[in-house]
Amino acid sequence: MTVREIFDSMDYGPAPEGAAEALAWLVDGGDRFGHFIGGAMTEPGDGFEAKNPATGEVLATLTQGRQADVDAAVAAARKAQGKWAKLPGNARARYLYALARLVQKHSRLFAVLETLDNGKPIRESRDIDVPLVARHFYYHAGMAQLIDSEMPDRAPLGVCGQIIPWNFPLLMLAWKVAPAIAMGNTVVLKPAEYTSLTALLFAQICQEAGLPKGVVNIVTGDGAVGEMIVGHDGIDKIAFTGSTDVGRIIRKATAGTGKALTLELGGKSPYIVFDDADIDSAVEGLVDAIWFNAGQVCCAGSRLIVQEGIAEQFHEKLRRRMDGLRIGDPLDKCIDVGAVVDPVQLAQIRDKVASATGEVYQPPGELPAGCYFKSTLITGLSPSDPLMQEEIFGPVLVGTTFRTPDEAVALANNTRYGLAATLWSENLNLALDIAPKLAAGVVWVNATNLFDAAAGFGGVRESGFGREGGWEGLLAYTRPKTGAKALAKIEAVAAPEAGNASGLDRTAKMYVGGKQARPDGGYSRAIWSKGGDLLGHAGIANRKDIRNAVEAARGASGWAKTTGHLRAQILYYIAENLEARAEEFAARLASMTGMGGKAAGAEVAASVSRLFSYGAWADKFDGAVKSVPLRGLAVAVNEPVGVIGAFAADEAPLLGLVSVIGPAMAMGNRCVVVASEPYPLAATDFYQVLDTSDVPGGVVNILTGSHAELAAQMSGHMDIDAVWSFSSSDISGVIEREAAGNLKRTWVNHGRARDWVADGEGRAFLQAATEVKTVWVPYGE
Amino acid sequence: MTTDLSSSERLGHTARDALVPQVHEPRNPGMALDLDWVMSARANTSAIERRAATLPGRRSVKKDWQAAWLLKAVTLIDLTTLSGDDTDGRVRRLCAKARQPIRRDLLDAMGMGGITTGAVCVYHDMVETAVDALQGSGIPVAAVSTGFPAGLSPFNLRLAEIGESVNAGAQEIDIVISRRHVLTGNWQALYDEMRAFREACGEAHVKAILATGELGTLRNVARASLVCMMAGADFIKTSTGKEGVNATLPVSLVMIRALRDYYDRTGFRIGYKPAGGISKAKDALVYLTLIKDELGTRWLQPDLFRFGASSLLGDIERQLEHHVTGRYSASYRHPMA
Fold it and tell me: Which residues of chain B does A278 touch, with a Cβ-Cβ cutoff of 8 Å?
């Protein structure tokens, strides 16, 4: 075209970013790359090709990791870990600072290489991914600096296995590596096989930064390498970002091994537009929600939920906006949507859209040759359409309408996922009312896809667990310093040959929905004192008792909405009523367990004190306002987890019980607690205390029975959000394995004992009883 | 409904270079004040700022495209002098520059015929001189009016000022609105004032200067834009150039979105003129991408878009010479206005 022709047409033209330097970097590496183990690149071996999805060109040949490579990487990480962890925080901070600076110094090389390898527009890799990577290392350089003074009771986990996806290759590396090494861990990281190149460039800057050998190790390869890492005995923690299906496999594979686990999985995040929204801005927001990185974003706003009265106008404006999206060469600086990462992914998107019911809109015009998919809007769907439930992971937006705010929330939450949510309204009252009601780890108000190292990111439900970013993100890479002893199985007192069953029969029932309940199965077990006295009978709960208890707990949803002040008053009241019956409880403990009267009295006193502690905490476990680079608020809110199933400690029949009920109640959860298996009668006595203390029915439900028999049922229940176990039965593995079903959070003891008096309350319990939700509220007039 | 041709059309378009497209846009007749619509206008400041901030990173025009776009920008400039020390000589010099804004040799090198700026913009007393100096060029003269820049002179005098400028040959009148009507939410008063200005303009086109830097909020900008369009404005314009804050991308986004809604509802295309503070070629390109992406290519013509600028042309001239020669340019190599 001549200048004159362009002057008349005012078309856009090509505006390519140069790739010469990035291609030269590949050539310098011989176009073949090995792994990065123990501070050096290994010899390239047999492997696979890294391709540019926009053109199909082969960029380099990478090495398929074998077991020996993973072993070597784990060994290098293990060897480095002790010394790395012993460095003063400031020393580690200097390395992280160097990494941040080096990312900035090589920023364009990283950006171009990322775009070549992944197909995302250069604007995104240049303006979003790489700056966020540098920010993440800066932020965690600061965390390394502060750990000694601010987290004196926390220790690193050890060697972390980290498996990351192909949609944000370098950014996910930063999210994984920065907090891990800041806290004194060492890592073995596997990039996605589609997109390993920027990880290999990162290996080079680790060398340039003089990072000690073995602190960061990178093994390339496919899912088989991921499996080797997940299954490796020398690894203490697995951090995975990827699909929910693979996350579930990893949950099962690591169950019972004692490996720590965080999962950041899929989503089908709602994008809610109220009729008082700035509609043009909400339309523009969708460009960043679902066409950012061609929709290949776990937290993409992929489910459009628009108020019915404005839906037609909104969809019309949206279609017009879609017409203006430019799809094509990712290296072009004038492109909105680049290539899909791989033909395999493209085929999946095609298949899903081909199955669509509803009204499908795609802008007119031809796509360029290569791995591209048109921006797509599918309206008129209902929740029962599979595309409203399944993650598409492509530039495809599906939508429906709502009538009222309550219906918007119901539609938004009608999903197994819970990663992010977006809502648009100019009404602050409405926005701040809706945000807490959305089942999501992140909520954006009048914005979308905002990220920062200071703000936690992560999901609820089947979107995974654990947070990345902020102080809360550090919990995923540290553990309490205290070492725990093994916990032996505590057996019930055996029935004596000639028991003494004098006195009036007292029937211990279970406690469900605020009422005493007989066991569904109709079986009970006699509880004997060591002296051979029959103390009573305890029901043997079965799966239906769990079902009933969970239903009661789910029904008591009002508890989550009560104020901390009210919950505090009720906890204090329980304490008051327990103390009034202190002697009776002490006598019960003594007779059940054979402990001395003094010890029994001490356990009751500790229980009263514990209830006081959680009464105190109920209105004091504050959230935080995060220092994000934005005019606005990023508020971390500690929300209740929901319904918690718990196996109480066997060895402390009363204190163990209140130690789980207390934090659960204080934070607004409902719970289903299985009492100490050998000594259940303190718990059944305790429900009488609850009954007299204004505890709403269903908030606390108490079952008695066999932990081993109930563990799978409890953990497999799809309407329970978290399961805790402090049991002396060996049930940690089965709980973690069964939890994979709905990816509920687990907190289990892995057969380790806990000192319930000295170490049985506080932040660890409160953190387990809450999920951090980050609510972003940009403001400005 | 008054259907009319644009000012450049009436003024013997044949005299102008054939590169300037013939345009036939029906003139906005205005409509009754629709307060429901006005009050429903929303403008989420942070979202608008984010869109504005990321736009330069999303769009890029390079090489021949950049040259063509910059040439287009030149044809969209209201070359302006609004100084107390303006004289006939100064205004004639400006008009000469408007006729030949880019060096002939540069245009030849790019295969372009002659181009002119979109208009020349002056105070009333300079209108006659400018009209005379632009005789036969087809370049319209725009006069700032109605007690520019504050708009606080007696209402009858403001109306009379419009009439005087039209009589003197101005084909475009840039009026200033009474900011107090916006700040006190007196939309009826704003509507009535604008209606009166429009009537006083007669056949001359009227650009409504909102003085957005003094309206306090983007929502006010959106509402004032709608009211002025309802009252018959042919163009809405950001600023006088005298406010503390003049044209910005966020303000532009709000105004052109209002303008798009007005077109959607009424079928009339209104023009847009950002003014003040746009002095770099790169800024001009960002504005053009904003207009193209939000409104469409049709709006990138002088009948629907103008830059109010005095120093922008100089930077574009340097960039164009760089395009032609591959060497960075110097300002003294280009004829001054």
Answer: 42-44, 47-48
- Pick from A709, A734, A735: nearest CA to A722: A735
- Amino acid B291 reads I
In a domain, B92, yes or no: yes
For residue B97, the enclosing domain spans 26-333
CB atoms within 10 A of CB A716: 20
DSSP H helical ranges for chain B: 7-10, 35-40, 45-58, 63-75, 88-99, 104-109, 127-133, 155-167, 179-183, 187-201, 218-230, 249-266, 281-294, 312-325
Catalytic hit among B72, B97, B174, B207: B174
Active-site residue identified among B72, B78, B237, B315: B237
Catalytic residue among A114, A264, A579, A603: A264
Q: Could you tell me the pLDDT band of residue B8, with boundaries at 50, 70 and 90?
A: very low
Mean pLDDT throughout A61-78? Answer: 98
- Answer positive or negative: Cα dihedral of B5, B8, B10, B12: negative
Among candidates B44, B64, B69 on the partner chain, residue whose Cβ is nearest the Cβ of A278: B44
The fraction of chain B above a pLDDT of 70, given in percent, is 93
Count how many residues are written for chain A: 781
Q: For residue A537, with 0-12 CB atoms within 10 Å meaning exposed, 13-18 middle and 19 or more buried, which class applies?
A: buried
> pLDDT tens, A349-374?
999 999 999 999 999 999 999 999 99
Burial A609-645 (b: 16+ CB within 10 A, else e): ebbbbbbebbeebeebebebebebebbbbbbbbbbbb
Residue of A421, A482, A478 whose CA lies nearest to A272 = A421
For residue B201, being part of any structural domain is answered with yes
Catalytic residue list contains A264: yes
Q: What is the mean pLDDT of residues A722-749?
A: 98
Q: Would you call B174 a catalytic residue per the annotation?
A: yes
CATH number at residue B190: 3.20.20.70
CA distances from B185 to A649, B36, B155, B195, B215 (A): 67, 13, 19, 17, 11
pLDDT at B24 over 90: no
Q: Please state, in angstroms and rounded to a whole number, the distance separating the CA atoms of residues A229 and A223.
A: 10
User: Residues B211-245: pLDDT tens digits?
Assistant: 999 999 999 999 999 999 999 999 999 999 999 99
**What is the rounded average pLDDT of the residues B34-55?**
98
- Tell me if B262 is assigned to some domain: yes
| Residues A490, B218: Cα–Cα separation, whole Å | 69
CA nearest A468: which of A22, A28, A160? A160
What are the tokens at B101? 């804004």
Contact B58 A336 (CB under 8 A): yes
Of B126, B66, B5, B59, the residue nearest B319 (C-alpha) = B66
Q: Quote the DSSP letter at residue B125.
A: G
Nearest Cα residue in chain B from A320: B294
* C-alpha closest to that of A731 among A745, A751, A717: A751
DSSP tag of A109:
H
Contact A780 B65 (CB under 8 A): no
ipTM: 0.95
- Tell me if the bond preceding B21 is cis, omega within 30° of 0: no
Query: How many Cβ pairs within 8 Å bridge chains A and B?
Result: 108
B177: closest CA among B204, B217, B213?
B213
Per-residue model confidence (pLDDT) at position B11: 37
What tokens appear for A263 in the block? 């999962």
- Nearest residue in chain A measured CA to CA from B72: A7
How many folded domains does chain B comprise? 1
Residue contact B61–A12, C-beta within 8 A: yes
Q: Look at residue B152 and tell me if it is in a domain.
A: yes
Question: What is the structure's pLDDT at B310?
Answer: 87
Chain B residues whose CB is inside 8 A of the A7 CB are 19, 68, 71-72, 112
Mean pLDDT of B53-64: 97
Residues of A whose CB is below 8 A from B60: 15, 333-334
pLDDT at residue B23, rounded to an integer: 56
